[in-house]
Amino acid sequence: MKAHSKESQNLMTPESSLTSLVEGNTRFQQNLRADRNLLEQVKTTSTGQFPFATILSCIDSRVSSELIFDQGIGDIFSARVAGNIINEDILGSIEYGCKVAGSKLVIVMGHTKCGAVTAACKRVELGNITPLLSKILPAVDEVIGANGEVTDSNIEKVSVVNINNAISRMRGESAILNEMEKEGSIQIVGAVYDVAS
């Protein structure tokens, strides 16, 4: 497979972009990989990049978007932060990926057994981790409440609510992304990666 060009990126739609990532994840689950020359992709993308998707995911070492969606160099923008939270820098990065660089799809991807979500559920406070986890607390409050039980099941529910909250914040805090989604030039979707399967 070759790196995306401006022409091939322009042919992608939000729907075909999602299909491409689903197909890539299927290959990953089957331990198959698309045939691509990564060094050739490095050369091709040295003069420009045309990713078709932007993925916000957690920093978790088990959740590399390029690997789990079987994508090559120049195919996707990958924004990573603990707990796949939304802040001004992440929003700016995603706006750049879509409005400036032409991505057609935004995925907010959480995962099972997320350390950041678990820490937020346990209301951990530690240095700069505290304000980061505060962005997950609305999901914790919705699922568990102030005095609810922190169970494995509740932690996974918080992870899903946190994804949905991030998408809502993205739509509410980024006029650029909101407008692009309404006009159909991008699609914003959520996903959960199961670290066990």
Structure overview:
The protein has 197 residues and is an alpha/beta fold. Helix content is 49%, strand content 12%. The protein has helices at 6-11, 14-29, 38-45, 65-68, 88-100, 115-121, 129-134, 137-143, 152-173, 175-182, and strands at residues 53-57, 76-80, 105-111, 187-193. Strands 2-1-3-4 form a 4-stranded parallel sheet. Helix 8 (137-143) crosses helix 9. The chain starts with 5 loop residues before the first helix and ends with a strand.
- The general outline is globular
Which parts are unreliable, with pLDDT below 50 for 5 consecutive residues or more?
A: none
Which secondary-structure class do the elements indicate?
A: alpha/beta
Percent in helix = 40-55%
| Spatial ordering of strands, largest sheet | 2-1-3-4
Please describe the topology of this protein:
Blueprint: H1 6-11, H2 14-29, H3 38-45, E1 53-57, H4 65-68, E2 76-80, H5 88-100, E3 105-111, H6 115-121, H7 129-134, H8 137-143, H9 152-173, H10 175-182, E4 187-193
Parallel strand pairs: 1-2, 1-3, 3-4
Helix pairs in contact: 8-9
List keywords for this structure.
197 residues; alpha/beta; 4-stranded parallel sheet; 10 helices; 49% helix
Question: Could you provide a short overview of the structure?
Answer:
This protein has helices at 6-11, 14-29, 38-45, 65-68, 88-100, 115-121, 129-134, 137-143, 152-173, 175-182, and strands at residues 53-57, 76-80, 105-111, 187-193.
